[in-house]
Amino acid sequence: MTSFADLGLSAPVLQALKDVGYEAPSPIQEQGIPPLLEGRDIIGQAQTGSGKTAAFGIPIIEYVDPQIDGAQALVLTPTRELCIQVTQAIRTYGAPKGVDVVAVFGGAPIRTQQAQLRAGGHVVVGTVGRVLDLIQRASLILHDCRFVVLDEADEMLDLGFLEDVERILSITPSGRQTALFSATMPPPIRKLADRYLYDPVTVKVESKNLTVDTVEQFQVEVAAKDKNEQLYEVLEAERPTQAIVFARTKIRCDQLYRTLRDKGMNVRALHGDLSQGQRDGVMLAFKSGRVPILVATDVAARGLDISTVTHVINFDVPPSPDVYVHRIGRTGRVGRAGRAITFVETRQKRELEAIEKHIGTAITPWSPGAKTIPAKIEEKPKRHEKPHVTRPPEIEETWAKLVVGAGRADGIEPADLVHAITAAAGLDGEAIRDVRVLERFSFVSVPEAEAPRVIEQVSGERVNGATLDLQPVA
Questions:
Q1: Calpha distance 177→191 (Å, rounded)
Q2: Which CATH number applies to 209-365: 2.60.120.20, 3.40.630.30, 3.40.50.300, 3.40.190.10?
Q3: Per-residue pLDDT at 299
Q4: What's the burial of 426, exposed, middle or buried (CB within 10 Å: 0-12/13-18/19+)?
Q5: Which of 59, 162, 215, 460 gives the lowest tally of CB atoms within 10 Å of its CB?
Q6: The pLDDT of residue 415
Q7: Are 41 and 201 spatial neighbours (Cβ–Cβ below 8 Å)?
Q8: In what order do the strands lie in the sheet with 433-437?
């Protein structure tokens, strides 16, 4: 078995890895660290939980010279939560070497972050919007930035950040080394890589290595009216050390939280309607183990990477096979056992069948104490190169662009708009594209057939104290 020492890492970094209990590199680390140490650009395709933060964080620490002030490396993340998580990891790897890591993200005082950047800041980890803001204020200078990482690039695409990502890349030195990590490779991400990466090495960890081999997967057939009670029964029978229950909308998320709380369970909710302080409090409580059950929406849970999660429960069948793989990848970490349980209504059978074909195995019916019964799908079709294929292409290409009469000055962030539309209009998150928040107004694209209903049902909704007013873009 390959060791971290075999990868040619320095003594301070090896000591830092030993201190945090890392024994051997994961596949993405074993394959990704050597080319990054050689100065190569890299495309890393792997799910959450594969160890990708260390795959790029360790080479960053090896690269940075702590004697030189200023940003030498930049890591872009789609969400505040992931930004904080990546920052903590890189600080751990860089502590013995004296590397200063600064986190910059929205929802926190920008002056504090400006002061931290002035004080040094060898590595900057930030959300796209705040990084661009600091660049425009001349508080973040990237002249000496020779290492750039795009972390979870497909989620940046989902949130409408790619245009801003390109603006940031265009400011960094042309001779930089670039690493792009993404769970999936939709065409816009592939195009971005082709444009901004030079002769990249591609490292791909197949999703099946993160799901079928390490997570027992079950399905529960249930009528819609019985789902709340069934959820309680499943949690009582499974007794998870820590579980994430995924709900499609923030309204459903709150309902499930109240249902479980009223039955005496220690549970918290995580969704976009919470203030940033509330979200941070929930994250800390769950990560520390004080709260065993978290009910969350997909957008709110992005970047949630906790190795002690033993169970993932899909209260609804996820909207695409890729979302399913991404969700259940949050358990069964680094060789640990995990269990994933998906609730299936009769109307969702076809969606479940698509997931089974994608992962290449049948999902076992659940009962208390059930074990997975391996059952390969005999006629497994060729895997989709592009996930999220849930509509005919001609329908997918027909989108309506809407303008929202609220923006950054009103405390609006892209995730807030996604949550408002999913909750008020019932759209899935994947049906919302090109979210772009400017100072006084915002843009969002939805399926053209749904646009009139979205305008009617979302207009008048209040988000962070601002009233949303949606209109079609002429």
A1: 18
A2: 3.40.50.300
A3: 65
A4: middle
A5: 460
A6: 76
A7: yes
A8: 433-437, 442-447, 399-404, 470-472
pLDDT at 383: 42
Count other Cβ atoms within 10 Å, centred on residue 430: 18
CA-nearest of 99, 103, 100 to 114 is 103
CA distance 236 to 446: 39
Which amino acid does the sequence have at 243? A
User: What's the count of helices (H) and strands (E) in the chain, helices before strands?
Assistant: 19, 20
Stretch(es) of the chain classified as CATH 3.40.50.300: 5-205, 209-365
- Indicate the pTM of the whole model: 0.55
State the chain's maximal CA–CA distance in angstroms.
63
**What number of other Cβ atoms are within 10 A of residue 316's Cβ?**
19
Question: Which has the closest alpha carbon to 463: 429, 401, 426, 413?
Answer: 413
Which residue in this structure is represented by tokens 């973040």?
A: 140
Note the pLDDT tens digit of each residue in 176-206. 999 999 887 888 899 999 999 999 999 987 6
Strands in 123-127's sheet, in edge-to-edge order, are 101-104, 123-127, 73-77, 147-150, 177-182, 42-45, 201-204
Cα dihedral across residues 386, 387, 388, 392: positive or negative: positive
Per-residue confidence (pLDDT) for residue 397, from 0 to 100: 43
**5-205 falls under which CATH superfamily?**
P-loop containing nucleotide triphosphate hydrolases (3.40.50.300)
For 329-361, the pLDDT digits (tens) are 777 665 567 899 999 988 888 888 888 887 778
Options 3.40.390.10, 3.30.70.330, 3.40.50.620, 3.90.226.10; CATH of 394-472 = 3.30.70.330
Tell me the backbone φ, ψ of residue 91, rounded to 5 degrees.
-60, -40
> Which residues of the chain are under the pLDDT cut of 70?
1, 47-49, 206-213, 276, 299-305, 332-336, 370, 372-397, 427-431, 474
